[in-house]
Amino acid sequence: MAVRSLRMNSRRLFWLVGLSLLLGLSACAGSPTPVVNQPTRPIAIIAAPRNDTPVAVGQEVIITFTAADVKGVSQVELSVDGQPIHVEKVNPPVNSFAGNKAWTPAQPGSHVIELRAFNIDNEPSDPAQVFVTVTGAGGETALPASETPGPAVTPNATTITLIPPSPTLADAATSQPPAANQPSVTTRTGLNVRGGPGTDYPVIGRLTENQTLLVSGRNAETTWWQVIYPPGSNERGWVSGDAQFTVASNVEGAPIVPAPPKPTPVPPTATPTLALPVIQYFKADRETLNPGEKVTLSWDLSGAREAFLRYDDVTEGVTAPGSKTLSPSKTTVYTLLARGPAGDTTAEVTVKMNAATATPVPIISDGKSKILDGQTIDFDRGVIQGADGVGADFHWDGGQKKFLPRNGASGAFVGDVFEDISLNDCRSVTYGQPFPDVTTASRVTGCYRTSEGRYGKFFVSEWSLSDASLTMEWLTWDFR
Length: 480
Prior knowledge:
The protein is mainly β. About 5% of the residues lie in helices and about 45% in strands.
């Protein structure tokens, strides 16, 4: 039966938030506040059913479970009485995983539900275990009055609700009152009896709250007690010595007992390896286009559930084998994506678009000439004239060493190499700025706008103190 997705009530949500905080907790730099160490192994928890839940034979039970690990949970294994009922590969691995599984008991008696989680390093969690008592008669049970029901999980047509743990367990032994001064241990809550001093030993029984057993020994760290279990027998078991689970009496002389060999860790069940989709080819009939030309893409692939062609901001589904003719307006990267159960495979093709050939802007005038003090220049016609010249754009004042605009013309100092100044450069500069004083720079470059609105560039290559003249090179584009 497939695993069902969870609908969590507020208590489950609160627990998952707390678990996420535990996984994400880290120390602040320079802070003396102690921090909680992150767990080094996965955490596995069975949230439902609860321990000692009575269930009828043939009645479906929803097992709700969660797993978490800082490295990432990669697999979970759920078993009943040691027999796997669900193995799930988590791909990609996640830090927190939740799921549920339906189980229908066929035999009455006590049954152990166990969950193990594995991380990406194949490290197993401590097994999470829950004991349920299966009775021979059917019938629906009710929630205790103290607990408000959350959203129901409805598998098929049967709903299982839970009651508090029963004080009676089929395989739990009756407490044996100790004689005076005999070493003993009493449970504070329901507790597992294990085959050795550690949670990696198998569970051999279950104790209820306030049950007392005789102590026959301890481990070297006094963190686990060896007890006579079942009471009155020659058999032995181990219970935790943690104060939150048990309270011990008259155990000062309890001997140290060697621990039995630990059980061999159960490796995760092998799961089939899924193969990624294969793209046999993805190509274009042309790698370079001129503006207005078309390109045809073609492809074939296998092992994919679905495939997509992506380019610019477009994603469209495609079939294989297939082809498509397109008219790109610029250099474009085309991506073929094949998606399968194991993941995605991609291939790319780049189609380059050649730049459009620009039409040269004609030059209306250019030249190089010496300009004397008081003369003017008309850059539209390339004419050097006197001070009152018609259509003059600039006047050379040798006394002030300044090049002054006329008739609405304007200039801008650029400072680049004359040959490198383009029309776009002259269109983008800020005009109306005064030209620099020629007495402080013998080589001056810049742009101008003529009185007729054309753009141009100039270069003052020489100037003379003796006659206050300068030599200028210029070029005027027929562009306004």
